[in-house]
Amino acid sequence: MNEPNKQNSIFKVIGASSLGTLIEWYDFYIFGSLATIIGAKLFPADAGASALINTLAIFAAGFIVRPFGALVFGRLGDLIGRKYTFLLTLVLMGGSTFLIGLIPSYETIGYAAPILVLILRLVQGLALGGEYGGAATYVAEHAPKGKRGFFTSWIQTTATLGLFLSLGIIVLSKNIIGAEAFADWGWRIPFLLSILLVGVSIYIRLKMHESPMFTKLKTEGNISKNPLKESFNNKGNFKMVLLALFGATMGQGVIWYTGQFYAQSFIENTCKIDFNDSRYILLWGIAFATPFFVVFGSWSDKVGRKWIMLIGMLLGIIFYRPIYQLFLDKSDVTTWNTSAILKENAPIVTRHALHSEGDSIITSSSRVNLINGASFNVVSIDTVYADANKMIGHAQVVKDKVLPTSTFWLFVGLVFFQILLVTMVYGPIAAFLVELFPTKIRYTSMSLPYHVGNGVFGGLVPFVATLIASFAGSTPLSGLWYPIGIAALSFIIGAVYLSNKKDENVND
């Protein structure tokens, strides 16, 4: 095959693999992007902050089972082939996502709602556990030697682009049908739409051919008879699995989920930024940073994978706390020029009975609009006795903040920097993992450390960090010690024990 045909062939492989993987990430992440709204639908109305924490726990459950999916589907991929295994994972992921969009709310079926969603999240996690390893292995086994970092980095863009797609469809749906309708039933639209995307991807993947390396192994009768045993009972191979986990994917995972998911959660739930503003910030940050996946993946072909990934971790360790402190400082409305008020809407007052004796809660909400385009809601909550109308409790909350233009773009820049670190640790990782393991057990061997590092250590970042920040005596920045600590440990192990060699074992 001549060079232009080879290039054309590899880009077809990348396109077919990437589209399916992008859709699987889209399916997996729309849940996290809508955690606040979904929590209000899955749990009682008076659940308060625990609804968000419980919803993030359900979100995290999907990550925790990803290693089991890696074992199940990794074994299948090494036994029957890459193509049909990650075709199956796509069907499971798409079906589960579609069904989440159909599940009734807590008001209709009670606690059966969160239980059913949890089950479907577990299926999603199992499916994603098999998807990534298959796609990365499939592309790497088609890529020419010396360019595996470049070609596999296109697969790496799909996780971020899947998040970008999910945020885009969420914002578009909300703006078309309105905020109230979206919070009531419109949040289901992104889940239901996924079935169309999955259908297109299945059609494309059915036309794909098996990996040439796996086909060669199958023809020669050298396929592994027991991939799990050969991956984890072999002392040398198991050592590489552990090094890949603790020296690379564990740190890469927390950098990934801090820079994208925890950043969004923090901006929305801690800084109280408006729903649309928080998502626009992330969308712009993703759009500016995504090309760097390919930049760092390609660079790793020249200088090696190790130090690019480790420097990304180190920069996160150093800069996370200053970045998130800046988020807090710049979202504090007392630092805004609130004297330049364009208008303040008349407060909307509602009164709710607290109990049968007649005590009640009075809520007063008004929107303040500033000349520079910024705005925010001021909500006052008063608890009063029925007799003598005596107040017994008062609280005031500022929320749904629309940032001043200069502050908005500062937030975009801070998110961009975090996602730039994501591209450093994530761009080279597929080539790094593929090159650690021989072909006949590659799907199994690379999938497990990847999904433990990302699914367990990384996927738990939003839940664990939010939980830590809710403890008595904690500060809004306390949750950052979790990703910082994990990244620091991974950096030390990786710096001491990982090799910076390229193209190892990939043709075995």
From TrEMBL:
Residues 13-502 form the Major facilitator superfamily (MFS) profile domain. InterPro entries: MFS_dom (IPR020846), MFS_sugar_transport-like (IPR005828), MFS_trans_sf (IPR036259), Sugar_transporter_CS (IPR005829). One of its GO terms (molecular function) is transmembrane transporter activity. It comes from the Bacteria. The chain crosses the membrane at residues 51-73, 85-103, 109-129, 150-173, 185-206, 240-259, 279-300, 307-327, 408-434, 455-474, 480-498. Keywords: Cell membrane, Membrane, Transmembrane, Transmembrane helix, Transport. One of its GO terms (cellular component) is plasma membrane. It is a multi-pass membrane protein. It is found in: Cell membrane. The keyword Cell membrane applies. Pfam families: Sugar_tr (PF00083). Its main location: membrane. This is MHS family MFS transporter. It comes from Pedobacter polaris.
